[in-house]
Amino acid sequence: MVSVGTIVWLSSELMFFAALFAAYFSIRSVSPELWSQQTDLLNVPFATANTTILVLSSFACQFGVFAAERGQVKRSGSLWQVKGWGLREWFILTYVMGSIFIGGQALEYVELVHHGVTISSTAYGSVFYLTTGFHGIHVIGGLLAFLFVLGRTYMTRKFTHEQAVSAIVVSYYWHFVDVVWIALFAAIYLIQ
C-alpha cells in the first residue's frame, strides 16, 4: 500500500511540474528575445556535469535497492570492494551525490545573480528560479528521506521487510526527481 500511495502522490507531483513547464514555455513564447539574451549566461558544461552526477546517483540508489531486496543492509568486506556494498553504502553515496548536485545548483545561482539574473529581474529569471528552485527543494526532500532510511537501519538490530519497502519507496521518489531534472535540463539548457 505504501508503494501505491507513493506512486499516486508522485502523480500529483508530476502535475505540479507540468504546470511549471507550461509556465516556462508560455512565457518563453511571448518573449523569445529575452530568452536568447538570458540563456547565453547559462554555464551549460557545468550544468551538464552536475546533471551527470544526479543521474549517476539514481544508479547508486538502485544498487542500494537491490541490496535491500537481498536483505543486505551493510557491506560484506572492505569499503573498497564495491560489489560487497549494502544498502547503507549505496544510499550514503547517493546522498553525497545529491548533495553535490545541490551545491552545484547553488554555485550556478550565485553566478547568475552576479550577472544580474534574479527571480525579480526578468520573466526569464522568474521561471528559471521557480522551476529549478522547486526541483532543488524536491532533491533536498529526497536527501532527508535518505537520512531517514539510513537512520532506521542504524537504530534497529535487524533489517526488516518494512525497512526494505521504505528504501524502495524512497528510490521511487529519487528516480522521479532525476527524471524531472532530465526534462528540466533539456528544456532550460539544451533547447535554448
Automatic annotation (TrEMBL):
Its main location: membrane. It is found in: Cell membrane. The keyword Lipoprotein does not apply. Belongs to the cytochrome c oxidase subunit 3 family. It is an enzyme of class 7 (translocase). Pfam families: COX3 (PF00510). It is a multi-pass membrane protein. SUPFAM superfamilies: Cytochrome c oxidase subunit III-like (SSF81452). Keywords: Cell membrane, Membrane, Transmembrane, Transmembrane helix. Its EC number is 7.1.1.9. The keyword Disulfide bond does not apply. The chain crosses the membrane at residues 7-27, 47-68, 89-107, 127-151, 172-191. Residues 1-192 form the Heme-copper oxidase subunit III family profile domain. This is cytochrome-c oxidase. InterPro entries: Cyt_c/ubiquinol_Oxase_su3, Cyt_c_oxidase-like_su3, Cyt_c_oxidase_su3-like_sf, Cyt_c_oxidase_su3_a-hlx.
